[in-house]
Amino acid sequence: MVLELVFSEADSGLRAVDALRRHYNFSNRRIKQIKFHGYFKLNQQTELLTVTVKAGDVAEIVDDISELKPLTLKEGAAQYVIFQNRWFVACNKPAGMLTHPNFHQPENSLSKKISDSEVHLINRLDKDSSGLVLLASNAYAHALFAALPEEKYYLTCVYGRVEAVNAGEEFLPKDAILQVEEILASGLLPELEGAARTAYIAYPICRREGSIIERRISSDKGKNCLTFYRVLGYNPEINVSLLLCRIVTGRTHQIRLHCLSIGHPLLGETLYDLRALAEMAKLPLAERHVSFKKEIGAEEQLKLDELRFSDNPLSTCAYRRLLSNLLELPPADLSSAAILTAPLYRQYCELNQLCQRQFLHSWCLKFADPLPQAQTPTSATPVTASYCLFAPPAEDMQNFLNCNFPQQAAALNAFQKTHFQIAPADETTNLQTVTAAESLRQKAQDLALNGRPLPDLKRYYEKYKS
Predict the structure, then answer these.
(1) Distance from C-alpha of 114 to C-alpha of 81, rounded to nearest angstrom
(2) Which residues contact 353 (CB under 8 A, 6 or more apart)?
(3) β partners of residue 98
(4) Contact 283, 336 (CB under 8 A)
(5) Which of 128, 261, 366, 378 would be 151's cystine partner, CB 3.0–4.6 Å?
(6) What are 167's strand-pairing partners?
(7) Which whole number is the average pLDDT over 158-177?
(8) Which string of DSSP letters, residue by residue, matches 256-300?
(9) What are the tens digits of pLDDT across the range 2-18?
(10) What does the pLDDT average to over 443-456?
C-alpha cells in the first residue's frame, strides 16, 4: 500500500509516528509493518518515524514493499463492478453467488470473480441476496472501512399488507432513543417520492440452538438489532408489499427474521417462511420440514423447541394472530388442513416458486471516505470524500417490480440516477468540491446509530450476552 498525505496544523511539533496514531488511525501493528517491511518518506527523503513533522510536510508511506502491486481485476469482472478506486471496489453481487469462497464452492464467489489478488471484504451478503458489496484493496483500507459510519439501504418484497408499526421498543437502549426518533422523523431517504411512515423493528437475535445456519429472536441471549423500514407500495392483487429497509446493526439474517417477526416473510424465502411462522405459532403444519443439517430425535427436538420459545418476547398467541391476519383466517380455524387449503397460502407458494430465491437486495450505501485524500501543502485540513452508491436490482427482481410496482420502480430508477455520487477522480477538483463532506462525517460520528451497531445492551440489560 502506498499512502500519500500532507500533515496539517494539528500534526505540527509531533513525531510522525505519534501523528499517524492520533490523527490517521494507524495501529501499532501497522507502524511495525512500516518500520520492518516498508518505508517512510518525508518531503521525498527517507526518514525514521520518530522525525518531527510540521504543517505542509508531504509524507509517502509504504507498509509492505512486497504489496506495492496494484489491485488488478480479472477479465469479466467489469460486469460486477460499479465503482473502483485505489482503496476499494464496489460490486453488485448477483443472487446465487457466495460473497467469499468456502470449501464446497472455492471458485463460485464474488471475491474470486473480481481478482486473483488478495481482497478484503468490508461487508457480506447471503448467497441468495443480491446487491452492494465493498471490497478493500489492502488491510489498512479494510481496517478504516470496518469502523466507518455508513447508511445501508435494502429493497425487499414481503408477503401481506404491512402496517408501519414499531416493534421491540423495550429493547432500545436509553441513550439511543433520541437518535431513533430523529431517524423516524426524517424518514428513509426522504428525497425519494412518497411520504410513507418510517417504523422500526428492534427484536434481539441469536443463533438457533442445534443449527449453524438459523437464527432466532431471543430476549435473553440475543444481540441488539435495529431495522428501520418504510412501505413503498402494496399490490392487493398479489398481496405483496415493497419495503425500503435500513439496517443499523448487521446481524446475520436480520431483515429476513425481523420481517418474519412482524408476520411478513420475504418473497422467495425458504428458511424464515410461512412454515416457520406456523412453527412459531406452534401449529402442526403438514409436511413442515426441520431445516437442521443433522437428524434430531423427537425428544431433543422438543427440548430445542422449548428453548426456542422460552425467551422469545412474542407469545405464541401473538404469532397466531400474525398468521391469522396474513392468511385472512379466523384464529379458531388455524389448523394444518385450513392453512394448506387457504387461497392466500396457495398464492404465497406460487409466488415463492416464481421468485425462486429471496427478494432481498442491498440497494444503496452512503458513507464518508475514511481515507486521507491527496492535499496541497496549503491545505490545512484533510479532504473528505462522500459516496452514495447504488446497485440496480437484479434482472429477476427488477422485472417483478416493473410488473407489480411500476410507479415505485420508475421512482427508484430515477432516484439512483440523480443521487449516485462518488469522489471526483481529479484530486484538484476534489479539493474544491468535496470539503463539505467533512460535516457529513462529523454528523455520522455524532449519531451513534448511523450505520454502526447500537451500544452494547448489556450496559442496560444484564441479561444480554455479548
Answers:
(1) 8
(2) none
(3) 109
(4) yes
(5) 366
(6) 201
(7) 90
(8) HHHHHHTT-PBTT-SSSSHHHHHHHTT---TTPPP--SS---HHH
(9) 777 888 888 999 999 99
(10) 39
